[in-house]
Write a structure and sequence with these properties.
183 residues, alpha/beta, Glutaredoxin, four-stranded mixed β-sheet, two-stranded parallel ribbon, 4 helices, 6 strands, elongated, Thioredoxin-like_sf, Large ribosomal subunit protein mL43, ribonucleoprotein, ribosomal protein, Ribosomal_mL43
Length: 183
Amino acid sequence: MSANNLFLKSAFVRAPLKNGVGRYVCQLQRIVFKFCKSNGASRGMRDFIEQDLVDFSKDNPGVVVYLKPRRHRGPVIVGEYLNGDRLWMSVHNKTHEEIVKWVELFRTQQGNNWNSRLRKYQYTNHPSVQGPWTPFTFKDPELNTAELPDVRFGSNNRLPATATEQLRLMFEKQKLDELKTAE
C-alpha cells in the first residue's frame, strides 16, 4: 500500500443497484452555478446561463438548479448527488462549449469516488502480471488471415461420429446386407 492511501477514507464502490434496468434514475440531485456578473473569467458561464440553462432545466426536471452570483470570485459548478457526494469544479476561463461538456459530465455520473480508496471483495497477495485470460490468448496468429475451414487448423472431418450418425451408418449397412442376401 502506498502512502497516498493513508489519508483517504476506505470505501467500496457505491453503484446504484440495477439503475437503468427498469428505468434510469438520474443521480444528480442539485447543481449550483456560482459566477460573477462582471468578471471576465465568468464569460463562458454567463453564456451558458443565457443560452442553455433553460433547456437544461426543461430536459432534467429532477435536477434542482441554483444560480449564485458572487462578486469578484471565479466561476464554479457544484453538483450534489443522491448518495451524498458533492463535486466541485472550477470553470475559470472556460468557454461556453467546455462548460456544456462539464455540465453533461456532472449530469451523467453518479458522484465522487475519487476521494476514497476503492476496496474490493477479493484480494490476492500475488496478482497476475500476465493479464486476463481470453479464449484467443494462445491461438496461432495465422488464424486471423486464414480462409476457413482449413486442414491446418482442424476441420470437422476429424471429429468422431456421433451416436446418431453411428446408428444411421449401422442401419444403412444392415439394409445393404439385406439387399445383397435377397439377390
